[in-house]
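BUG: 3D viewer hangs when loading the predicted structure for this chain

Environment: internal workstation, default settings.
Expected: structure renders.
Actual: progress bar stalls at 90%.

Input used:
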Amino acid sequence: MKRRFSHVTAVWICFFGLAKLAAADPRPFTFTSDAYPMGKGQWEIEQWVTYSGERGNDSEFMRFDFRTELELGLADNFDLAIYFPEIRHEDSTAGGEDTSLHGGAIEAVVYLTNPVKDFLGIALYGEVKIREDELEFEQKLILQKDIGKWIFAYNLVLETEIEGAFEEGENEIEGILQNTFGVAYAFLPGWTAGGEMVIKSVYEDWENYEGTAVHIGPVLSYQGGKVGQDGVWWVTVTPMFQVTDEDSESDFMFRMIFGIGF
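Structure tokens produced before the viewer hung:
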């Protein structure tokens, strides 16, 4: 009962935190990137809130990550995004309670084909994240196909985290291979619902396999709210549950992304 209460409380904290924002490119998913381009001259602000709770070796673990993104459409098939420093609040049995500020990131996406007009939508994604003592690289192959009211998406994700990148001595390198899947259906104008799955495998130095976690959950998105004459706002939410038994990964996650575009 205590665990269920903590999850529900975390979800409501995420919701009300975003509802207070002074409110494009709507996202049908939160853990799976889509192949919709922003469009030249368009820009958007997104607020991410991600909650991670409970790990097999720490039932009291709880973490909130707050991430703000400014996305710009520099060409019809090229988007550039800047992530401002993230705010993280974490509470665990081992480390206690702590709030910290993490470094920002820059992201670029090239859209090769369109998921609506072409046989298959294809996009290439690259991100570099800089923190105080860590450097991260992330690359994605994004595939998507829209068929009528259905949206099908797949991401192949490679992440390399270099801890101690700005210090002398040996670095610790962690490699992450992810396969993410998303499917959604437009059941009402502006509304889509479906599900997501994330398969995450971790490697030490990209050589030694450490384990794989699988998370599955529903996704709900509303797109098309009006702000002034030109603004459009949208919101997408996904609760995720671990269906494997990987102690190093959270048993429950919840992500909400709120965006307003012009």
